[in-house]
Amino acid sequence: MSQALLQAAALGALRSADLQLAPGRYVVLASETEPLAALISVLSGREPPSAGRVLVDGFVPSASPEVRRTIAALFADEGLPPARSVTESLGRALAARGQASARATGLLADAGLSHLAELAPASLDQRAVRSVALALALAHDKAALLALHEPLASLLDSAHVLRELDRHTARGAIVLATTSSSADALLLGGSWLSLELGRVRSDGGVTPRLGAGTFQRVLVETDDAGALALLLQASPVGLTALGADAPNRLEVRGPALDVTVHEVIALAREHGIAITRVAATVPPVDVLLAARAGFARGAYEAARAAAHDGVAAAPIAPASGGWR
Amino acid sequence: MSIRLGAELAIARLREPGTLSAAVLGLSFELGVALLERAHGRVGAADRALSGGAFGVAVPLFCYWLVSRACGSGSLREAVQPLARHGANRQQLVVGLALPPALVAAAFAALSGSCVVVLTRGVSDSRLFGDVATCLWIGIASGLAYALAFVGASAYGRAGRGRAWLLGADFLLGAGSSSLALPWPKGHIRNLLGGTPVLELSQLAALLVLLGTSFALLTFGLRKSHR
C-alpha cells in the first residue's frame, strides 16, 4: 500500500507541511495567497524541500527517478517538453515515464483535446498547457500518487476529471488536490486539509480533517437542533456541531462558509428538518487576530517538536468560544 | 534511454528559430576580424584573427548562447525538469542535453576557425593545409571544452547564472597567464594556438587541463543536479 509522508517539509512560503497520506482522496483548501503550488512541487519531487523531508513509499522523490515515475503531478506553472507538436511532446513525457509514446494520440482523444494534437507546445496558452498536462497525469494508470493543483480549472470537462479521480482513488492511489475554490473542493470531495499561514498538517491516521475552521461558524435556527447535530456528525465535509444554547439553535463549524451552509441546507432538506434562519457568526476582529496568531504559533511549535522528536503532536488550538 | 531523451530535449530547443542566425552572425564576425587583420598585415594575421576574434570572442560567446538555448535559458535542473518530473534520470538527461550543443559548438569552432585560416593565409600559402588541420582539432577541442564547461556551470546560480559567471571569469581572468588563468579555457586555447601559455604549460598539458577542467565542471553540474 502506498504512503506519502511529509515531515516539517518547507519550500519558500510553505513553512511546514506535516502530512501522512495513505491511499485515498485529499483536498487541500486555502486562499490564493497560500503556497499551494509549493506543496505540490515538494510532494511530487519537482523540488527538494529546503527543510524537513518528503518520502513517497519510503524514498525521496526528488532524488529517485523510480519514485517520480509513479507520481502524476499537475503544477501551477505547467510546461510541456519542447517538441514540434503536442503529440510528440506527450510521447517524450510517456517515454520518460517508461510507457509507450504511441499512447499520446489516444490520450489526447480520451481527454477531448484532439484539436491540440498537431499544435506546437510553445503556441499553447497556459490553460491549454495545464489541460494537456492534466490529461497526461490522469492517464497514468500506475501512479501511486496524484498531486494536482487546481485540477478542475482546465479545458477538460469537470465530470471527466472527477470520474478519472474516482477511478484512481478506487484502485488505491493517493489523490491529493489543492484548490483555492471551496466550490471545487466540495466537488472534489475526500478528506479536507487546510493550508494556513504556510502550514498544513494532518492529525494522523488516514482521515485527516480540516484543522483551521475555527472561525468558519454558522448559526442555524431550526425546529430540531438535536437531530440536525447528529446528521452533521456524519457529514463527509467535516462539519462539527458545537452545541446549542437553545433547543432550536445550533452553531456549526465548517471549512468555508458557503460549503457549510450548502451542506447544512442539503442535509436539512434531505431529512425534512425545517430551517428558519442561517447566519454567519463573526467574532470581534481583535479576538479573531489573537486566536489566529495563537493557532499559528501553536502549529509551528507542534511542527518543530514533531520534527525534533519524530513524534506527531497536536497544535495548540485557541480556546473555543472565548470570544462569545 | 534518458540520455536519448536529454539529447532530444536539447535538439528540440536548438531547432527553434535563431540558432542558424547566431551561427551566421558568429561566422561573419570571425571573417570580418580576419579581413581586418589581413588588411593590417599578412604576417601573423592568422594567429591574431584566431586568438582574437575567433577563439577569443566568437567561439566562447556562441558556445554560451548555444548552451543557454539548450537549457531553455534556465538552470540545468530547470532544463531537464520537463522530463525528469516524469521519472527520467536527471544525470542521464544532463549528459544527453550536453551532447547536441557540444557537437554543434565543436563543428562551429572547427569550421569557422578553418575559414579564418583560409581567409588570412590565402589559398596559395604553402602552410595552409597544415594550419587548417591544426585549426580543426583545436576547434573541436575548444568547442567541446566551452560547451561542456557552460553546461556544468549552468547548475549554479539562479536560472543558471553560473554560465554568465564562467563567461565573465573566462574573459577577465583567462586573458592572463598566471595561476588565476589556470581554471579557464581561454588561456589554454591561446596556448594551443601558439600564444602565451598559462604557467608555462606545454601544449599537451594545456590540452589536458582544458579538457580536464571542462569535464570536472560538467561532473560538478551532474552531481548538483542529481538531488
Q: Can you characterise this structure?
A:
- The complex is a heterodimer of chains A (324) and B (227).
- Chain A is 35% helix and 22% strand.
- Chain A is built from ten helices and 13 strands.
- In chain A, the strands form three sheets. Chain A has a five-stranded parallel beta sheet, with helices on both faces. A four-stranded mixed beta sheet of chain A has the order 4-1-2-9. A four-stranded antiparallel beta sheet of chain A has the order 11-12-10-13, with helices on one face.
- In chain A, helix 3 (86-96) packs across helix 4 (103-110).
- The N and C termini of chain A lie far apart (46 Å).
- Chain B is built from nine helices and no strands.
- In chain B, helix 3 runs antiparallel to helix 5 (90-121), helix 3 (45-70) packs antiparallel against helix 7 (162-172) and helix 4 crosses helix 5.
- The A-B interface holds A 44-46, 48, 62-63, 65-66, 68-71, 73, 79-84, 92-98, 122 and B 1-2, 5, 8-9, 12-13, 15-16, 72, 81-90, 226-227.
Structural topology:
The complex is a heterodimer of chains A (324) and B (227).
Chain A: E1 4-11, E2 14-21, E3 24-29, H1 36-44, E4 51-56, H2 65-68, E5 71-74, H3 86-96, H4 103-110, H5 126-138, E6 145-149, H6 158-170, E7 174-179, H7 182-188, E8 191-194, E9 199-201, E10 217-222, H8 225-233, E11 240-241, E12 249-253, H9 257-270, E13 275-281, H10 285-309
Parallel strand pairs in A: 2-9, 3-7, 3-8, 5-6, 6-7
Antiparallel strand pairs in A: 1-2, 1-4, 10-12, 10-13, 11-12
Chain B: H1 2-14, H2 19-40, H3 45-70, H4 76-84, H5 90-121, H6 128-153, H7 162-172, H8 185-192, H9 203-226
Helix pairs in contact in B: 1-5, 2-3, 2-5, 3-5, 3-6, 3-7, 4-5, 5-6, 5-9, 6-7, 6-9, 8-9
